[in-house]
Amino acid sequence: MTAQAKKPTNPKVGAEVAQTGAKAPFPFRTGISLFLLAGNFLIAAIYFHLVNF
């Protein structure tokens, strides 16, 4: 017995974002993540004495 793959009933499932013209998912979460990443780089720069306050 072999399993047969079924096509999704929703035509949007598996569609590429570039082809649908949709926006990037989770813009708020992405922004917060980039803000926290920048903070981490600032803390690392202070720790390694690249930035002195």
From TrEMBL:
Keyword Membrane: yes
UniProt KW keywords: Membrane, Transmembrane, Transmembrane helix
InterPro entries referenced in this protein's UniProt entry, alphabetically: PSI_PsaX, PSI_PsaX_sf
TM annotation in the entry: 32-50
SUPFAM superfamilies: Subunit PsaX of photosystem I reaction centre (SSF81552)
Taxonomy, superkingdom: Bacteria
Name by which UniProt lists this protein: Photosystem I protein PsaX
Organism, scientific name: Scytonema hofmannii FACHB-248
Gene from which this protein is expressed: psaX
